[in-house]
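Posting here for the record, re: adenosine monophosphate.
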Amino acid sequence: MNGIIFIAPPAAGKGTQSNILSSKYNIPHISTGDLIRASRNNGSNEYIKQAQSGGLVDDDFVINLVYNELKKSDCDNGYILDGFPRNINQAKELDDILKKLNKKLGYVFLLDINYELSRNRIVGRISCPECGKVYNTLDSLSKPKIPNKCDICNTDLVRRQDDNEETFKNRYDVYLNETSPLIDFYQEKGLLHKIDASMSIEDISRKIIEVIDYDNN
Ligand code: AMP
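Prediction output follows.
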């Protein structure tokens, strides 16, 4: 299967959808945000600080992380890039990497949500560090039953350091100014599929899977 990428404002659900697709199609989920946060021990503090501020981390650093993941053999049957590319330069570099590795990009999903929904999902988001369940304190349907405790395993819930009002504004501006030009870039290549990401998680993945399965059957 050819590769999958997402274009998405903050909290549109690219991480969640990547997990679902990764299990369904048995292909690796490569999250640049996770890779950057996990690079703490490699003298990458400067990059981690950049990420915590909501701005983009240096292209060369991120491109190198992605290249090292894509060249692994488990990407031979497809891959999901969650959070990459984030700007036109990265998109062009991705084209070059894929050519070099003889791989293809098949699908670009634009997860479409408006400013208000993006903000509320970020500012209210807390999650369980133990089982990964995500909650939202601003949404009565997805609040934890006991404040700050996981419904499933009773662990204390945590907030991602960049999930706050101030950083959100930065992240949204970065999305508008740097990432959203990718919409036209991939539309011109005929790879773009727009999905209404205000729907439920299940409805979003059903739409995405319809597109992929239509192509592969
Ligand atoms: P995410 O987990 O995708 O929301 O990413 C968290 C943060 O990591 C972003 O706000 C950026 O600071 C940084 N980051 C993730 N992916 C990239 C990328 N492709 N280019 C530059 N910075 C990135």
